[in-house]
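Q: I'm building a small set of examples for a reading group on sequence design. Run inverse folding on the following structure and report the sequence directly after it, with nothing in between.
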């Protein structure tokens, strides 16, 4: 275990891999795979300042893929600071192409674009391919329209495909490597071995990023930040806020005040379940606030998903401010269960060209004049890291394995304007779906499942009567890190049974559809 007196110093000097983001859909997956090797990784945008890059003091740098083409002008390039660090570099996809171009090679648009599975042939021995046999083949995942057609000076080709003669390359004398394929996706055979070779054998990173060390570090950081002051936590009952509550409870004890806001956008019976678990079983300071009418009033007439998220976030803060004002002692801190994907997807970076996928209520909906300071102990952790931490902290497995629920709740699962009637319909439909998943033993086989309320009506027939009623979409996905996801292939008989129950038991629903979109291009939530 790390000695708490040295935690700040240890965190500063812990071995790190910098993932430079050129806009790939897989960038977060690269960082996650590195962390699975017990090595800390951090994502920064390609146009980050030289000072910020140097302050991170990485042991190595991975250049992500991206949607741009090196063959066009004014597209992203690797900052010179990266090469001045004198550390190993690994370019992936676009990262390989701009690396080749910047070292004097040539990149051209491919006649035969590669998207999906293909086979590479290992051409020569390389530390990057340690464990592979020269001349052997391996299945990999490609996603590119351009390719390196001419090697830069002092580079060798170390792998090829039928349509890309230079599928991997390395510098003759420097630890600079590049791959046209994506080792970070599960579709690439031995992708983790390649990343391990780069991280541990080439960069020589020590494996210091471990959950038991992190818990001690987080508790120490909370104590340093908060001292003996009080902290208000918005507790939702989800994994993120629950783990945050346990960390804070271990750090500051009864100086933690948990507030559960019933915003009218929760799952069926959520408020009762949260009170039973956290107040009765875990003995936390818990205040329950019934704010359904306030939220419905603020959201009336609003259909835009970004507006809804921001309104929900601001309303949460207003309620927290009001609750804090009612307390006898001043509350100076607001804790949130913000995690790393929330920061990334809300473009909470220092990029000049940050693109918002969605505003998270923990990130994008906070007012500038908020009275309390933020405490976000999980903001550098991925979801599965949070679950592991929760297990170490003693949280029950049924809670830790619960599917994620978005901060804005059903507000982003009701497409279009929100009303109390729509919420009730969706709560009941969702409860049926989850109940049947559990009964069929399918709940733990999917990563996230829910129903969405669509802003359309459809004709149906119930008995001999014509029904013109609402449409419910069923969504179920499988994923490891929630940055990419595939739709779950649930059994047809099961889907038919769920659809039958929803339509027959809810008179306001005439049709059920199943969402078969993967992420990307879709997001997991509908809004």
């Amino acid at each position: 275990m790390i000695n708490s007196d040295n935690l700040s110093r240890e965190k500063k000097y812990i071995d790190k891999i910098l993932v430079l983001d050129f806009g790939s859909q897989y960038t977060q997956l690269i960082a996650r795979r590195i962390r699975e090797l017990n090595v800390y990784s951090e994502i920064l945008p390609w146009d980050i300042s030289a000072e910020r890059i140097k302050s991170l003091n990485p042991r190595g740098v991975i250049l992500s893929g991206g949607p741009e083409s090196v063959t066009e002008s004014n597209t992203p390039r690797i900052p010179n600071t990266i090469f001045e660090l004198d550390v190993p570099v690994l370019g992936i996809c676009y990262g390989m192409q701009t690396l080749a171009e910047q070292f004097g090679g040539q990149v051209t648009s491919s006649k035969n674009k590669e998207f999906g599975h293909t086979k590479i042939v290992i051409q020569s021995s390389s530390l990057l391919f340690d464990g592979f046999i020269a001349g052997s083949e391996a299945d990999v995942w490609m996603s590119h329209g351009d390719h390196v057609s001419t090697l830069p000076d002092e580079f060798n080709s170390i792998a090829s495909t039928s349509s890309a003669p230079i599928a991997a390359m390395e510098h003759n004398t420097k630890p600079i490597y590049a791959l046209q394929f994506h080792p970070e996706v599960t579709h690439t055979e031995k992708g983790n071995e390649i990343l391990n070779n780069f991280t541990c054998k080439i960069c020589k990173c020590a494996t210091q990023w471990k959950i038991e060390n992190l818990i001690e570090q987080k508790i120490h950081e909370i104590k340093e930040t908060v001292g003996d002051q009080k902290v208000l936590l918005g507790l939702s009952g989800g994994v993120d806020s629950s783990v945050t509550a346990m960390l804070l409870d271990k750090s500051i004890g009864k100086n933690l005040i948990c507030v559960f806001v019933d915003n009218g956008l929760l799952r069926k019976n959520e408020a009762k379940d949260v009170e039973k678990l956290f107040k009765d079983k875990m003995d936390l300071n818990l205040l329950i606030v019934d704010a359904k009418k306030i939220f419905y009033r603020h959201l009336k007439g609003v259909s835009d998903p970004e507006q809804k998220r921001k309104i929900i976030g601001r309303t949460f803060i207003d309620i927290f401010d009001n609750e804090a004002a009612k307390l006898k002692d001043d509350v100076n801190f607001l804790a949130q269960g913000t995690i790393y994907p929330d920061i990334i997807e809300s473009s909470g970076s220092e990029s000049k060209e940050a693109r918002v996928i969605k505003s998270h209520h923990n990130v994008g909906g906070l007012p500038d004049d908020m009275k309390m300071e933020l405490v976000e102990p999980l903001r550098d952790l991925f979801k599965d890291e949070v679950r592991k931490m929760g297990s170490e902290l003693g949280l029950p497995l049924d809670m830790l394995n619960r599917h994620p629920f978005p901060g804005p709740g059903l507000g982003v699962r009701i497409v279009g304007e929100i009303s109390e009637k729509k919420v009730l319909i969706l709560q009941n439909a969702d409860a049926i779906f989850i109940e049947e998943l559990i009964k069929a033993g399918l709940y733990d086989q999917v990563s996230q499942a829910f129903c969405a309320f669509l802003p359309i009506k459809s004709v149906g027939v119930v008995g001999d009567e014509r029904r013109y009623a609402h449409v419910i979409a069923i969504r179920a996905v499988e994923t490891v890190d929630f940055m990419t996801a595939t739709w779950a292939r649930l059994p047809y008989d099961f889907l038919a049974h769920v659809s039958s129950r929803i339509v027959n038991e809810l008179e306001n629903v005439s049709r059920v559809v199943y969402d078969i979109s993967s992420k990307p291009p879709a997001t997991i939530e509908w809004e």
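Confidence is low (pLDDT under 50) at residues 1-10, 354-365.
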